[in-house]
Amino acid sequence: HGFDGFPDAPQRQTSLPESVFRELLIQVDQVSVLKLMLYFFWRLERMEGEFRYLRRQDFLDDMLFTRSLGITDQQVQAVLDEALQGAVQHKILLSVPVLTGKMAERVYFLNNARGRAAQEAVRLGTWRPGDEPDSEPRLDAAPNIFQIYEQNIGPLTPMIAEALRDAEQSYPVDWIEEAVQIAVEKNVRNWRYVEAILDRWQQEGRNEQKDRRDTAQDRQRYADWDSRRKRK
């Protein structure tokens, strides 16, 4: 099954430095290193904390990523080790040995100002990675409702975040994802419209074929809610 093309709905973006295109694409000829580099940028951009890093096991824990490296576990680990070694040799990543409990392992930082500062802090003993790495996000992790909203409708606000938490308690996540997709298809990128769809499903039942049609019922519910909101 080949790539179906980029969706019309807006997706969260991952930024890449200009040097990736002007220097690294010319220097790096190992596909596995390029895959690892792209994955590293994607994952670090979605992590928090002053110093962001990954361990070898963090790569292995992401089944969707490892599927791109090989079929068997032995093949995946061999390709991953080769890619990590290549990324360090090309100075894309910084490899730092650390002691976690009684076990020595390596952590990997991006070779930028923050990564070099982390490397120096480890060397001086003023900072070390925690005992448990932050294993999220992963490519194989199901999107949560906040990601679904941001990728399809718009930026989160405190009020919207509260509404999403309430919806998560009232409706299955797959209902919310489907209702958001319908709102996108109808070009009504508004949470109130999504709520109208969910409310109708809860009261009348869900009919996948019927729900794809542009019903006046959902638009009227959305209009009624919007009208009441403006009067407050």
Protein architecture, described:
The protein is mostly helical. It is elongated and about 60 Å long. Strand 2 (93-100) and strand 3 form a beta hairpin. The chain starts with 17 loop residues before the first helix and ends with a helix. The relative contact order is 0.09. The chain is built from 12 helices and 3 strands; from the N terminus they run ααβαααββααααααα. Helix 2 (31-45) crosses helix 5 (73-89) and helix 7 (145-152) packs parallel to helix 9 (173-185).
Question: How would you concisely characterize the structure shown here?
Answer:
This protein is mainly α and 232 residues long. Helices cover 57% and strands 8% of the residues.
Key phrases:
232 residues, mainly alpha, three-stranded antiparallel β-sheet, 3 strands, elongated
Strand order, biggest sheet?
A: 1-3-2
Low-pLDDT windows of residues: 131-135
Strand residue percentage? 5-15%
Rounded mean pLDDT is 82
Helix content: 55-70%
Element order: H for helix, E for strand: HHEHHHEEHHHHHHH
Count of helix runs: 12
Shape: elongated
| Computed Rg | 23 Å
| Separation of the first and last Cα atoms | 51 Å
- Content-based structural category: mainly alpha
Biggest beta sheet attributes: 3 strands, antiparallel
How many strand segments?
A: 3
Q: How are the elements arranged and paired?
A:
Layout (H helix, E strand, L loop, with lengths): L17 H10 L3 H15 L8 E2 H6 L1 H4 L6 H17 L3 E8 L2 E8 L2 H12 L20 H8 L5 H13 L2 H13 L5 H14 L3 H4 L4 H16 L1
Antiparallel strand pairs: 1-3, 2-3
Helix pairs in contact: 2-5, 7-9, 9-10, 10-12
